[in-house]
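Below is a filled-in request sheet from our internal design queue. Each sheet records the structural input a requester submitted and the sequence that came back. We keep these sheets so that new team members can see what a complete request looks like end to end.

REQUESTER: design group, bay 2
PRIORITY: normal
MODE: inverse folding
CHAIN LENGTH: 611
BACKBONE (tokenized):
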């Protein structure tokens, strides 16, 4: 696939698309075939929301997230249904506003809390907008059944692919390390090192539960843990070699892939290494074909040390030289020599977790979300009367500052709604056959599953088309295409006016807070005593680089939001980059290099935005 702005696109998630199509089509086919259409539509709504959270993370946390989604959505649906059944016009509005306040209060506390808050509010919106006859428990049970179907389909490969996701995540670290080493001494070195940090963060999250408990030796989780611990040490060495700033020969840059082949047998890491070993005595050639002089040792003599021996005692001509003059190369050679007998060193502490915003920001977001939902509900009552749930539902989807810039999310929501309306309108012009429409639901469900991983507007396109078919199956055959586009635009306008009138600096404050936390973590890593245990050193290093990656994402988020007119944003990027250079230098120092002075960290953001 082509790259966009220099970043490679991830492959199309065909398995997720197939799961999305099946999870949405099966309940509708069963409902239409048995005559129980309303429960099938509610199950389809649950499956629709489940598809939006069907990620590529390990099976256990994925199923846990879907369980949180299902329970919160079912609880919200029950509350909305009871409010609608009460017959009091104000009961629905009170239920929506209360749910919005609760959702806003918890959503900024982390990913699971965000999922719970969003789907609690969505459940109340649907429950108060779609009358469901019969016992009160039918609707929540049908919704839970749809979410459960997504969970079952998503986790179906678990028995025979139990640790495949963790293995792929750890292997990606070794590949990212090889790319960073290949980029050393070039302008691509820093971006490649950041990609290594991202790969380590992803692997750290994927390996989470295996890092917090003892593992039986000889099991696959133990082998993965050992490979991950080695990857942490490799990350430190790679940072040091990037800091040294000189190009490295092919036999060095391929070392991480050979280590992965040793530590993760059965992967295709070995197939990505060089097919022929370099001559360990002859000088290597650079990219132009000119020979590179061998490294010199501490005395200035060229290094022509014999290569390492493999397990049989024969020399391994592909190993990095053990006595190379560079401290980073010596450390890489030592790590390579030990990689056939890895020993977990308990260095993989959990990634730091903290709220993205303080308590005051959580309260402000809750109040603003409640006000936006109230405004949307009042507008829906004036414009549509019954079944005016589209406006508050759109507010719930759009006003998620923890998921990216609000302005961009609103624009993508509007664009996706227009595209979804056009797509499903074209389908209904050709046919109104129920089974053809269910086939369209399967296609748009697959599109949504792809969009969840690639682009919010694409996900909205699929979701909009699916919702129109579900509404049609409920018997609402009104021509709502133009109305839903206008409703989406109105809901987005409500969110944008409220957010930028009353909280315009939220993204900038978050970026400043993340940058301060990242700089503090880098300084803690710098100030670690020389005799500290390796586990503590690796934990501080991982925390520092993780915080820096978070800060860079928060800064990009802030630059994507319009702020107060005439107010200049701090130069977070310069401060983050200088803290990264500090961490690289500290990594080099820890491996034996002795920079005369460690680089200072710029403090451009300190105090710039207030609390």
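RETURNED SEQUENCE:
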């Amino acid at each position: 696939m082509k790259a966009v702005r220099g970043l490679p696109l991830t492959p199309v998630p065909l398995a997720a698309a197939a799961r999305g199509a099946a999870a949405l089509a099966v309940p509708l086919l069963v409902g239409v075939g048995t005559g129980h259409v309303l429960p099938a539509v509610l199950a389809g709504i649950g499956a629709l929301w489940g598809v939006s959270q069907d990620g590529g993370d390990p099976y256990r946390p994925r199923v846990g997230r879907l369980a949180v989604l299902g329970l919160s959505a079912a609880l919200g649906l029950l509350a909305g249904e009871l409010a609608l059944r009460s017959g009091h016009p104000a009961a629905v509005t009170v239920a929506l506003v209360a749910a919005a306040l609760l959702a806003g209060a918890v959503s900024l506390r982390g990913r699971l809390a965000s999922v719970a808050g969003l789907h609690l509010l969505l459940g109340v919106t649907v429950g108060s907008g779609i009358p469901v006859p019969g016992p009160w428990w039918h609707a929540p049970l049908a919704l839970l059944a749809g979410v459960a179907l997504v969970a079952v389909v998503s986790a179906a490969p678990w028995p025979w692919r139990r640790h495949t996701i963790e293995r792929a995540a750890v292997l990606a670290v070794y590949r990212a390390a090889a790319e960073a080493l290949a980029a050393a001494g070039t302008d691509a070195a820093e971006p490649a090192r950041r990609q290594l940090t991202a790969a380590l963060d992803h692997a750290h999250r994927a390996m989470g539960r295996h890092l917090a408990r003892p593992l039986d030796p000889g099991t696959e989780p133990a082998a993965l843990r050992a490979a991950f611990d080695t990857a942490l040490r490799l990350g430190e060495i790679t940072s040091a070699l990037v800091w040294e700033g000189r190009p490295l020969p092919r036999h060095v840059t391929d070392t991480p892939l050979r280590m992965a082949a040793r530590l993760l047998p059965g992967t295709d890491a070995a197939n990505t290494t060089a097919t022929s070993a370099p001559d360990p005595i002859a000088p290597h050639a650079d990219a132009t074909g000119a020979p590179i002089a061998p490294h010199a040792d501490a005395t200035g003599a060229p290094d022509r040390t014999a290569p390492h021996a493999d397990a049989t005692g024969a020399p391994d001509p592909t190993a990095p030289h053990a006595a190379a003059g560079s401290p980073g190369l010596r450390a890489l050679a030592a790590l390579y020599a030990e990689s056939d007998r890895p020993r977990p060193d308990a260095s993989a502490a959990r990634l730091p977790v903290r709220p993205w915003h303080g308590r005051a920001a959580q309260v402000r977001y809750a109040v603003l979300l409640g006000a936006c939902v109230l405004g949307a509900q009042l507008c829906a009552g004036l414009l549509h009367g019954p079944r005016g749930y589209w406006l508050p539902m759109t507010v719930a989807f759009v006003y998620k500052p923890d998921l990216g810039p609000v302005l961009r999310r609103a624009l993508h929501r509007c664009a996706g709604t227009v595209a979804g309306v056009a797509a499903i309108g074209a389908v209904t012009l050709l046919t109104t056959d129920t089974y053809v429409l269910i086939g369209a639901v399967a296609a748009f469900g697959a599109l949504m599953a792809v969009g969840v991983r690639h682009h919010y507007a694409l996900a909205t396109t699929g979701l909009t088309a699916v919702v129109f078919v579900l509404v049609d199956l409920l018997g609402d055959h009104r021509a709502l295409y133009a109305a839903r586009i206008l409703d989406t635009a109105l809901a987005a306008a409500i969110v944008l006016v409220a957010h930028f009138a009353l909280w315009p600096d939220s993204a900038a404050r978050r970026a400043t807070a993340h940058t301060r936390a990242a700089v503090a973590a880098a300084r803690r890593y710098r100030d670690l005593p020389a005799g500290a245990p390796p586990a503590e050193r690796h934990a501080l290093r991982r925390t520092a680089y993780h915080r820096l990656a978070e800060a860079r994402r928060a800064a990009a988020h802030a630059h994507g939001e319009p702020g107060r007119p005439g107010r200049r944003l701090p130069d977070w990027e310069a401060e983050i980059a200088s803290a990264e250079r500090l961490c690289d230098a500290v990594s080099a120092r820890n491996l034996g290099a002795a920079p005369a002075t460690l680089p200072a960290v710029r403090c451009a953001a300190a105090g710039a935005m207030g609390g």
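SHEET NOTES:
- The chain is about 65% helix and 0% strand.
- The radius of gyration is 27 Å.
FILED BY: M.R.
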